[in-house]
């Protein structure tokens, strides 16, 4: 059951059956991203809204200097040159403006480090990469269009808590050997202590060509 909005009325919702469409999934993703960004980067979002700039606005040195002066130096986004796209989502202003790659790959979405959605995102891509290490998991997240703040620490911590990785990469248990018996370390006359390998004789039947069975001890 999905709660969908009527097209003719803005605030009228009704429950409909059926799987979500691609557009509904995209809108849900945008809503979640904007929600967690405003939760952790509310001051930065307000500053970007006051500047009303996109990736093209901050290309020249003067506008970039103005943005950096507005952002606090203690902010985790100060060195990432953030901007708001047309959907109101914070993205990284990279140097790939002239590249032919899609817009989502050139300007990654900023993801906070301490959020439940971040943990779900890391877990999803870690499983999608077949429980690989930090490097491959981090590359998979960036190829999906996300930039996790302090990604190395956050992703390494998430992989460290993965139960499957603990089982696959766990160290084998090494058992400490017991002390040597006194009979083997103390002097004694020859044949004072002897050992014997015991085994049981069993009869084995063997069939011959003429049908007569013979047995051996």
Shape: elongated
Number of helix segments? Answer: 9
Distance between the termini: 76 Å
Output the strand order for the largest sheet.
1-2
Poorly predicted ranges (pLDDT <50, ≥5 residues)?
none
Percent range of helical residues? 25-40%
Structural class: alpha+beta
Radius of gyration: 34 Å
Outline the biggest β-sheet.
2 strands, antiparallel
Strand content range: 5-15%
Number of E-state strands? 8
Overall mean confidence score, pLDDT: 80
Secondary-structure element series? EEHHHEEHEHHEHHHEE
Structural description of this entry:
This protein has helices at 22-40, 42-51, 61-70, 103-106, 116-128, 134-143, 151-160, 163-168, 182-185, and strands at residues 2-5, 13-16, 82-84, 90-92, 109-111, 146-148, 204-207, 213-216. The protein has 217 residues and is of the alpha+beta class. Among the domains are: 22-94, no CATH class; 113-169.
């Amino acid at each position: 059951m999905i709660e969908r909005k009527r097209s003719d009325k803005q605030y009228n919702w009704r429950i409909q059956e059926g799987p979500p469409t691609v557009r509904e999934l995209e809108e849900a993703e945008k809503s979640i991203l904007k929600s967690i960004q405003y939760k952790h980067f509310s001051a930065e979002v307000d500053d970007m809204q006051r500047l009303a700039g996109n990736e093209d606005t901050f290309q020249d040195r003067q506008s970039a200097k103005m943005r950096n002066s507005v952002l606090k130096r203690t902010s985790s986004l100060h060195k990432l040159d953030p901007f708001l796209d047309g959907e109101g989502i914070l993205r990284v202003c990279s140097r790939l403006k002239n590249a032919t790659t899609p817009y989502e790959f050139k300007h990654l979405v900023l993801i906070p480090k301490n959020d439940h959605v971040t943990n779900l995102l890391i877990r999803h891509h870690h499983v999608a990469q077949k429980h690989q290490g930090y490097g491959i998991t981090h590359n998979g997240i960036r190829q999906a269009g996300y930039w996790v703040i302090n990604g190395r620490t956050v992703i390494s911590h998430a992989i460290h808590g993965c139960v499957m990785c603990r089982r696959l990469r766990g160290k084998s248990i090494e058992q400490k050997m017991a002390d040597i018996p006194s009979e083997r370390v103390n002097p004694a006359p020859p044949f004072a202590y002897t050992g014997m390998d015991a085994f049981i004789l069993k009869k084995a039947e063997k069939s011959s060509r003429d049908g007569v069975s013979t047995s051996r001890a």
